[in-house]
């Protein structure tokens, strides 16, 4: 189990550098600091959260950079065209 990921699953807005700190000492993970306004989770709660975390679908990988650039160029061109059309509408009496 990864306690930090289990905690972040339980408390999605938690910051692992300020809200809690998990120390890993040769594979033994210990919560050494807890600054969340909730009771520190038990081992059972952490294990349950870890198992639920593992059931989540893997995130989709990002699109290739070339695809992202192409989409951004297309979006940019559409915005330029819309601005041009609006400018012409405003300028027309």
TrEMBL record:
<dbReference type="InterPro" id="IPR019094">
    <property type="entry name" value="Phage_SP-beta_YorD"/>
</dbReference>
<feature type="domain" description="Bacteriophage SP-beta YorD">
    <location>
        <begin position="4"/>
        <end position="57"/>
    </location>
</feature>
<dbReference type="InterPro" id="IPR035950">
    <property type="entry name" value="XkdW-like_sf"/>
</dbReference>
<protein>
    <submittedName>
        <fullName>XkdW family protein</fullName>
    </submittedName>
</protein>
<dbReference type="Pfam" id="PF09636">
    <property type="entry name" value="XkdW"/>
</dbReference>
